[in-house]
Amino acid sequence: MKCSGRGAVAPLPLLFTLLFTAAFRVCRSDFPRIGRRAPAAPPRGSVILPLSGNVYPLGYYSVSLNVGRPAKVYELDVDTGSDLTWLQCDAPCTGCTKPRDQLYKPKNNLVHCEDPLCSAISISGTEPCKNPDDQCDYEVEYADKGSFLGVLVYDYFAFQLTNNTRLSPRLTFGCSYNLDTPSPTAPPPTAGILGLGNGKASIITQLYRLGMIRNVLGHCLSTKGGGFLFFGDDPIPSSNVLWVPMSPTLLAKHYASGPAELLNRQKPGNVKGLQVIFDSGSSYTYFNSKAYGAILNQLTGDLNGKPLKNATGEKSLPVCWKGTKPFNSVNDVNAQFKPLVLSFANNVEYKIPPEAYLIVTKGGNVCLGILNGTEVGLADFNIIGDISMQSKMVIYDNERQQIGWVSADCSHLPNWASQAGEEADYPYHEDL
Predict the structure, then answer these.
(1) Domain boundaries, the chain
(2) Is the CATH number of domain 242-407 2.40.70.10?
(3) Do 18-233+414-426 and 242-407 have matching folds?
(4) What is the pLDDT of residues 326-378, one digit of tens each?
(5) DSSP states of 322-338 as a string?
(6) pTM of the complete model
(7) Hey, which residues are catalytic here?
(8) Terminal CA-to-CA distance of the chain, rounded, Å?
(9) Nearest Cα to Cα of residue 155 among 51, 69, 31, 61
(10) Which of 257, 194, 209 minimizes the C-alpha distance to 396?
(11) Which residues on adjacent β-strands are paired with residue 178?
(12) What is the third-level CATH fold of 18-233+414-426?
């Protein structure tokens, strides 16, 4: 669920992503063989990857992955709110933001329409292709009217596990060759998107079906910038993690839970029944109009009598305050604000401290990193974005259908051995 307009306009969570497929004829002999079974699975481990980026001013967290043979490094925007991983692709490309030598180039590795992953990205109830040996095309449309045309391909991804095994599974992803990003939305700054939703096309699902990892992933976003991403359950602490059940019928392929209640200064309030999506593809946090209004009221009351005055906001951050002198960091002002708290079932609380909802701008004002989701087309849904997941390890356990979190120092990678071990190839992918 990617946000657009990084640092320019209010980021729009791309919640209602539409995936369309069309097809045209290609020769079957152009394709390498797609196997119907996976080879024997290795001992499961986990993958831990360092992240780059920040909430402000960049507005995204990214990971570098080695793709292809010979391997080439691509920087991908990490998005737990969408399924499809895709790279800007030289097929050739229209609207790509990267130089041609940095684009992915397909090499007779297109995915057939008969592949189950082709139907996994199509609209329910429609036929993606007329013939099973057609290539699998897609169009991704986002809420900000941006769209991406592409074709499904598969290639090798290089990973190293915490058990020191190096693996090169062949995974399916999108090759996007036509990017239409309407003004004033900024074009994507990375080479593509790493889709980590819980649908069949997701990279995490593919790795799990190949027997490489547990169907668990998580991330730890640092307020200092960077952090880490992990696939598998090795980095998860054995205690202190708070868990809530996923809402499987809320929105397909999204990590959601609810209902939740927005507490009023740690006490029950009148904002209840919130359905909450955890989405690393959204820079900021979004609440529906009722919850957003309640938050503004809380903040206004908390700031009464304090030396902060309303200030002119930025395009993407409309609610701001200024002090007697410019602020250098959130640490200069967070003592004047109080935590926000979401209470889930069984009184499990998700606490959002001031440093997880405030942003100090380049001009020295402090701004609210929570926006009105109803105004940007999210209806009654609520999104916990990057800003409110900082300094927490957030875990998406697809096997147990639960979402967890625990406070963590995200500025350091977990202490796992890093030397390379034996490499194993995975030349085929399963019927996923």
Answers:
(1) 18-233+414-426, 242-407
(2) yes
(3) yes
(4) 999 999 999 999 999 999 999 999 999 999 999 999 999 999 999 999 998 88
(5) E-SS--SSGGGTGGGS-
(6) 0.88
(7) 79, 279
(8) 22
(9) 69
(10) 257
(11) 94, 149
(12) Cathepsin D, subunit A; domain 1 (2.40.70)
